[in-house]
Amino acid sequence: MDAVTWIRNPQVAAAILLAAAVLGLVAANSPLAAGLDALKHWHPTPFGGVDLSAAHWVTDGLLAIFFFVAAIELRYELTQGELADRRKALVPAIAAVGGVAAPALLFVALVPADLASGWPIPTATDIAFALGVLAIVGRNLPVAVRALLLALAVIDDLIAIGLIAILFTTDLQVWALVGAAAMVVVVWALGRLYRSRRGSWPLRIAIAVACIALWWLVLQSGVHATIAGVAAGLVLAPAPAESARHRLEPFVNAIVLPLFAFVAASVAIPQVPLGELSPVFLAIAVALPVGKLVGITAAGWLGQVALRTPRAERMPLGDIVTVALLGGIGFTVSLLMNELAHRDAEELIVDGTLGVLVGSLVSVLVGGTVAAIRSARLAPVDAATRRAGDLEDERRRTDGE
């Protein structure tokens, strides 16, 4: 097995992701912390109107590539995969809304009124970490479980990005948003043109340039730049999209996600006595695992009933619960929202950070355990059959490349 094939393996990629996260957390709480913090805040020479720190080049720049690949996979699931049926496709959207509403309401119920402005913090799901945990411990679970988690997490993050834009963006640039909308149309048009000229390198380059321009415009608008990756991945025609996904997947697994995990996890654990923590800590630590569990499970199950999904086609309650538990891994976006919501109160940022870490860790442990137990109960698929299925799926995805 060559290195590229090896790094495409979901379990290998997830193991590298989680190892990088552990390394980041350890480094941030070691004597290396000061140097690491300086490196994260280092600003390379600005160009093209872009002045980002090294950390933001990872979380706003490289991570957009991951979102691009994830959106392409989501589109495949929505058009040809497990969510191709319209009723099945609506379930993740309904579950995502429940997964946002329940943690927010629980947070508000657990804090005094003057601290309620932090309600968006526990509403996000970290796509990379949630999928990573599932890949490691839930390899025998039905494909539909991963499809639901992927769709739910993408929609969840879109809602979170929308909340950031509405609640926390003070310098929204309308001209850039209008330009970004126009560039989405350009990406779509170039993708359609590619269908009649498959293998055209000038068109591939044009699509890449258009995607970079879209990212730049979204960044200039003040909205989180990763939404550019989602938009491009969803509108790009299947042929160029699958070609791009196939080429980018090894880079994303080997470089983008480990760097993201390292930067995102390099958080100093606050040295605060438990008795001195504000209600914000407990509210987040409870709202992430419990709120997500209740909201996603209830909305997902009721969504299937409301959409009159035939009983034989409904996802088992146990699978929905598994997805809901993993949905409580908030981490990156939750940490970002914590900083934005409490930017005028440093002590609340400390408490909120600890709450996000604890809540996400509980979700990793409980969700991972449940996924592992359910996976172990399923008869493993014969290795040859699994490999043949993977090759066939890859062939269909890259057809027309």
UniProtKB/TrEMBL annotation:
<keyword id="KW-1133">Transmembrane helix</keyword>
<comment type="similarity">
    <text>Belongs to the NhaA Na(+)/H(+) (TC 2.A.33) antiporter family.</text>
</comment>
<keyword id="KW-0915">Sodium</keyword>
<feature type="transmembrane region" description="Helical">
    <location>
        <begin position="52"/>
        <end position="72"/>
    </location>
</feature>
<dbReference type="GO" id="GO:0006885">
    <property type="term" value="P:regulation of pH"/>
</dbReference>
<dbReference type="Pfam" id="PF06965">
    <property type="entry name" value="Na_H_antiport_1"/>
</dbReference>
<feature type="transmembrane region" description="Helical">
    <location>
        <begin position="93"/>
        <end position="113"/>
    </location>
</feature>
<keyword id="KW-0050">Antiport</keyword>
<keyword id="KW-0472">Membrane</keyword>
<feature type="transmembrane region" description="Helical">
    <location>
        <begin position="223"/>
        <end position="239"/>
    </location>
</feature>
<feature type="transmembrane region" description="Helical">
    <location>
        <begin position="315"/>
        <end position="337"/>
    </location>
</feature>
<keyword id="KW-1003">Cell membrane</keyword>
<feature type="transmembrane region" description="Helical">
    <location>
        <begin position="281"/>
        <end position="303"/>
    </location>
</feature>
<keyword id="KW-0406">Ion transport</keyword>
<feature type="transmembrane region" description="Helical">
    <location>
        <begin position="201"/>
        <end position="217"/>
    </location>
</feature>
<dbReference type="InterPro" id="IPR023171">
    <property type="entry name" value="Na/H_antiporter_dom_sf"/>
</dbReference>
<feature type="transmembrane region" description="Helical">
    <location>
        <begin position="174"/>
        <end position="194"/>
    </location>
</feature>
<comment type="function">
    <text>Na(+)/H(+) antiporter that extrudes sodium in exchange for external protons.</text>
</comment>
<feature type="transmembrane region" description="Helical">
    <location>
        <begin position="149"/>
        <end position="168"/>
    </location>
</feature>
<feature type="transmembrane region" description="Helical">
    <location>
        <begin position="119"/>
        <end position="137"/>
    </location>
</feature>
<dbReference type="InterPro" id="IPR004670">
    <property type="entry name" value="NhaA"/>
</dbReference>
<protein>
    <recommendedName>
        <fullName>Na(+)/H(+) antiporter NhaA</fullName>
    </recommendedName>
</protein>
<dbReference type="GO" id="GO:0005886">
    <property type="term" value="C:plasma membrane"/>
</dbReference>
<dbReference type="GO" id="GO:0015385">
    <property type="term" value="F:sodium:proton antiporter activity"/>
</dbReference>
<keyword id="KW-0739">Sodium transport</keyword>
<feature type="transmembrane region" description="Helical">
    <location>
        <begin position="251"/>
        <end position="269"/>
    </location>
</feature>
<keyword id="KW-0812">Transmembrane</keyword>
<keyword id="KW-0813">Transport</keyword>
<feature type="transmembrane region" description="Helical">
    <location>
        <begin position="349"/>
        <end position="373"/>
    </location>
</feature>
